[in-house]
Design brief:
Structural class: alpha+beta
Radius of gyration: 17 Å
Strand content: 35-45%
Strand order of the largest sheet: 1-2-3
Largest sheet: 3 strands, antiparallel
Order of helices and strands: EEEHEE
Number of strands: 5
Helix content: 10-25%
């Protein structure tokens, strides 16, 4: 199980099994994803983008969106959204 805590010295501690990681809080972003695959990240980013568009530009209706996230050359996740 992965756990994380923000320490008082502005360091984020992350533990997973026997591994331990520490990084400045400003370099960390905790996302509501169970797995940080590029496919899951693409889906989350697309939904977050649509949420922000709806919030800031309520007159705009997104009918089609394709979002691609590339991990490395040739390794990408694509999320397609389409309203018929």
């Amino acid at each position: 199980e992965l756990t994380y805590i923000q320490r008082e010295d502005d360091v984020m501690e992350v533990r997973y099994r026997q591994s331990f990681y520490a990084a400045p809080v400003g370099d960390c972003l905790v996302l509501p994803l169970n797995n940080i695959s590029v496919e899951n990240l693409s889906r989350w980013l697309a939904h977050e983008l649509m949420r922000r568009i709806a919030e800031q530009l309520p007159e705009v209706q997104v009918k089609k969106l394709r979002l691609s996230t590339e991990e490395s050359p040739g390794q990408r996740g694509v999320y397609d959204f389409c309203v018929d």
